[in-house]
Amino acid sequence: MKKIGILFGQERSFPQALIERINSRKVKNIAAEPVTIDKVVQAAPADYAVIIDRISQDVPFFRAFLKNAAISGTAVINNPFWWSADEKFFNNALAEKIGVPVPKTVLLPSKEHPDDTSSDSFSNLAFPLDWEGIFRYVGFPAFMKPFAGGGWKHVYKLSSPEEFFQKYNETGQLVMMLQEAIDFDAYFRCYCIGGKYVRIMHYEPRNPHHLRYAATHDVGDEMMKTMEEYVIRLNQALGYDFNTVELAIRKGVPYAIDFCNPAPDADVHSVGRENFEWVVETAANYAIERTLAHKDGQDNLSWGGFLREAVAGKQIGGKAEAPRKRAGKVK
User: What is the pLDDT of residues 15-53, one digit of tens each?
Assistant: First the structure.
């Protein structure tokens, strides 16, 4: 029997519905259940062919457990090694390299020194920074937000350099990024599962939280196809099996605003019944697909195009580089 485990925290509607949906399929020798952890021994395999991770971003113990499970063959959704390495500023840089429009963004050092550091630790950092050049590049209005954060925590909308410095002084040791504000005509939140299944949801982030999915935007079929292509391109490059991408359309151009959401909201009370049904059905099908493809004791993780192309010696985006010279004799 191959088991699919769901690792989750406080959420209830999605994990339980997903378990019930998978088990209702009655696929021979496949069963789903909540993950149970009674001990974690180094290099010992977990009792699951597939684990769907919904909580390790908040619990370091779970992230370490998942890496240990993965090294012995569990297919973890999402890849815990890549998830640990990824952050939003890198996402933007990668998006530019693969041809997906993103807002102009710069990285900012933390306002306060990290613990156990002093001014001597920043010998390579210019003082002051080129604030004039930064503001000229990004422009105002702009958003300042953590480079690796989520959930709209510590996010500021700024209208001037004076307001920027006032809020920047409140950010403590957080590493922030300053990002161009996109004055959008339409906004969408898109599930992507397996790097190929896409659900484009009309969304209005300016509405109260419970009304954000109660939106309708007038866009044509061609724009919908472009957004689907961008969503797939981003997730295949990053290697996420379960993610959401937020797209803001300004003057006919869809900008990827936020696409590092590997444990996205899937609660029926916020996403709505139709979207909930799609994500449960699609996640169940994909989990079964990955279980059927699972090979005991082998690497069953998804690795994105960015890493695979790097290993193959290619430029980001797929253009081949000249072969690297290696020490030793030429054969």
Answer: 999 999 999 999 999 999 999 999 999 999 999 999 999
- Give yes or no for a contact between 6 and 77, defined as CB atoms under 8 angstroms apart: no
Pair 142, 156: CB distance under 8 Å: no
Q: What H or E segment, with its residue span, contains residue 132? A: helix 131-138
DSSP string computed for 246-306: EEEEETTEEEEEE---SS----HHHH-HHHHHHHHHHHHHHHHHHHHH--TTS------HH
Nearest to 144 by CA among 192, 99, 187, 88: 88
Using an 8 Å Cβ cutoff, are 18 and 33 in contact? no
Sign of the alpha-carbon dihedral angle for 48, 49, 53, 59:
positive
Task: Show the domains of the chain with their CATH numbers.
Answer: 2-85 (3.40.50.20), 104-180 (3.30.1490.20), 186-290 (3.30.470.20)
Q: How many CB atoms sit inside 10 A of residue 209's CB?
A: 10
CA–CA separation, 147 and 172 (whole Å): 14
Instruction: Pick out the chain residues at pLDDT < 70.
Output: 150-151, 318-331
Contact 141, 157 (CB under 8 A): yes
Assess contact for 4 and 241: CB atoms under 8 A. no
